[in-house]
Prior knowledge:
The protein has helices at 2-44, 48-64, 66-72, 75-94, 97-117, 122-125. Helix content is 89%, strand content 0%.
Amino acid sequence: MRRLWISQALLVLIFAATVGNSLYLKHLTGTITDLLEEAQILAQQEDWEEADALTREALKHWQDRELYLYTTLRHADTDEVYTSFREVEGFLRTREPQEYAASNARLIARLELVASMEQFNLQNLL
């Protein structure tokens, strides 16, 4: 009977960790997405320096949690997000509004996909 309780406790612990990871990742990507959306608005107003600063802040949020992200997510997904950040930074430097807007939208979509892949729902279970 003791083994059954230990097994159940482990399952509850794993489930709690899964839900906690999902909530944390949703919060993190939401924060980064908000910064990138604000940067997009500033770029449309041609405030490129402030848009660049917000994008660097968003990248710093991602990099500060890099060990956690590489531990809990697929490396290909985290690499794609990092590469997308570099692409966005490049278009910010060249101040190409259409390319920047498209690249920033792709980055935001990738962040949303990363968060949705970790959500606890029937689609991800199957």
